Amino acid sequence: MTTSSCACCAASRSACYRRDRERVADVASLRRVLCPTSVAVVGASHRESAVGNAMLRNIIQGGNTGTIYAVNRRRGDIHGLTAFRSVADLPEPPEMAVLCVPAESISEVAEECGRRGVRALVVVAAGITGKPAVVDGLLTAVRRWGMRLVGPNCLGVVNSDPAMPRTCSTNCGPRSSCSARDRPSRWIWTP
Description:
The chain is α/β, with parallel strands linked by helices. It has helices at 13-34, 51-61, 106-116, 132-145, and strands spanning 38-42, 67-71, 77-78, 81-84, 96-99, 120-123, 148-150, 157-158, 187-188.
């Protein structure tokens, strides 16, 4: 809707412009969630059974064309990537961070992501909603640093745009028995 055809223009043209500007800004900020140019998996794990391992593996195997970082306090190599000790140690701030850390660490890691310049968080960790201090810490960090938040207790993000690089769930991947009608055209960061 353009401001010239908006019913509210007679009352307040500036309010109309402000609503349009906010809508455009909201859409632009979701780009970092739906098609980030760089992603850090915080809590990427060496253990095959860990969610952080599955998230990182799926992003890599899915053909993501952006920059991918692994963050693991013990460092080392995970799926062929050199892991960084913290988000602060990354060579550049990723647009999105996928948090696969214990619930007790979420607030601290979210704050670190915000300080580093991360613009969107996907919080995979469960067990947060029953801990008001953790929820408050997470929301405080997100609001303070202007980050978009998906989660907590989620399985990732899905973008059905066929132009997105494919990253698939371990249950429904490109080589699985799932038919094309059983999955969206693009999966992003699902364990």
